[in-house]
GTP-binding protein (Cladophialophora yegresii CBS 114405), 623 residues
Amino acid sequence: MNSVPGTLMPFLYPCLFQSTSKALPARCLRLRLPKRTHRDLHRTARVHIPSFAEQNVSPRASALEPPPPPSLTSTATSTSTHLNPAPDDYSRSIFIDKCVITISSGSGGSGCVSFLRDAHISDGPPNGGDGGSGGSIYIQAVPGQTSLHKLARRGIIKAGRGIGGQGKSQGGRRGEDICVQVPVGTVVREIWRSDPSVEEEHRLRELRATMTDDEILALPPEQSGLRNKFVIYAGATTTADRTQVASTLPSLTSSIMKPRRSHLSVLQPPAPITLDLDKQMESPMLLVAGAIGGLGNPHFATKEDPKPKYATKGALGVRIKLELELKLLADVGLVGLPNAGKSTLTRAISNSRTRIGDWAFTTLSPTIGTVTLDNNVGRPLVRSGVPSDHTSDSASIIPRQQFTIADIPGLIEDAHLDKGLGLSFLRHIERARILAFVVDLSAGDAVAQLKALWKEVSEYENLRDREIAAQSEQHGGTVSWSPFEARPPASTANGNGLLNDEGAPISVFPSSRGDKPGLEPLSYPPISAKPWFVIATKADIPSIRGDSAPENTSNSQSTTQSNFISLQAYMKSVEHGTVAHPGGKPNGWKSRIAAIPVSAIRGEGIDRVIRYTAGVLDSLVVG
Ligand SMILES: Nc1nc2c(ncn2[C@@H]2O[C@H](COP(=O)(O)OP(=O)(O)OP(=O)(O)O)[C@@H](O)[C@H]2O)c(=O)[nH]1
Ligand SMILES: [Mg+2]
């Protein structure tokens, strides 16, 4: 059919074809529409609806992305190298370090109303099976993931609901469990939760507080909410039958009506959830247990009513809104002003393909590079490692094969006040074990650059200290993950639970931390107490750029070499304590600090950085 119009059109409508060729002036015919590729056409035709993930991304990231400067777009690709790449030679990974997700545990399946029927038994005893419990949601921090974008895109995570019970006492199948995998270093915080069982308990408590048992018993099933809890026998088809069954339902005050919970729920972390998943987890941790399934009709058989025509519905699942925040864990965090050369250094030192550009804010999201210390077959290129059993026996040293380095976006003045890309990415240096301050020797006074960077870092540290203090006041500290170290059930924790022969309470879930209540809050060393050193880059450039050279300097002083010498002198004075720590903190790390000159673009001086870092990492483990 498609080919017909094309073939017949000139014969059916010859005027159309004549007019386009003759009526239009020659000038118009020469006009050519700009060539549009297939992809462009798609782009214009579609209306862009932002996805959940895009809504989760900080809007600043895209707003701040600068267009590539003309000089770079016209660069011939033939001159590009790994350390001075063409604009398109970088890996662009999606990175999201903060997102909100909603998790829902599965609802339980309903119990079944059924009676034994046989060739010889026409009206047998009840044999309805129980409903299966809903699926639970687990969380696991796994290595190899560096972003939360997959979770941000999913938004809502639901475990499967339990299947209803069946006749012949067949229990329903359990709902499907879900394991949420997050990168190591993710902090999980609860924003709100809706737990129908807790809400029901509250409702019953309120009813009991305002009414007597007789008044509650007298409540019609619609008001007591009983009707919503039961499955009525399908054989009761007429209204009269159903009303008759409803009149036999157990009362709200009976013990069988107490809200039930799945046995897994004792392993849930206490609400509100606050987890710090800073270690790789061998097995998943339960976040929220699935709701329990309903009871089949045999549970309600009594002497008075041996064939109950009702069963209970399964409980509803719990919904929790969680905020996930990723704080990358790297051995070294690079801190530097924009355009200082951090990404070039990361490329030179590691396998990273992070973006490089001669403009500020080339890097918009942190990237982790892995620095290999062996030739990938286990032969060490740099001597590094820690004794396996903390003895000095060199035979028992486990060689270090790699360390990781985080290239984070540049800091500008007042980054701690959330200027530039500051605050959102400063948190990634919080967990780096070593800080490497990258200063550009060709961009003016290196000591002033270092002090400016330290000022931002220590201001951020103050801010964090205040935040952590406020948080621990609210929640009593962050909970660090540890396998099967669940809180004791409330009943045993407050001494009302199981008692031994002497009448003393016994703990069913003994904690490995002795008798301390709850789990200990995480303690990270303050940022200023972390080991740090300076990487003075762009050492290949002979002189300081004209506009950034310090005023009143002679020609000899405006060389990058003299700049480095004064930086080295400053570092020595900090180490000896003659000058205050640049962060202004009394507990600041001062021992064995160094300034290492490098030319990242030529790959010179990189070996020293690797050896120095490996040495500091070794000393951190042994010390
Ligand atoms: N001559 C010379 N140029 C360098 C060196 N290192 C980096 N550059 C150049 O400096 C510019 C900025 O480098 P980047 O590595 O993108 O700087 P950055 O610190 O990552 O910048 P942001 O991501 O914006 O914070 C690029 O044009 C690099 O080619 C070096 O050692 N020598
Ligand atoms: Mg960069």
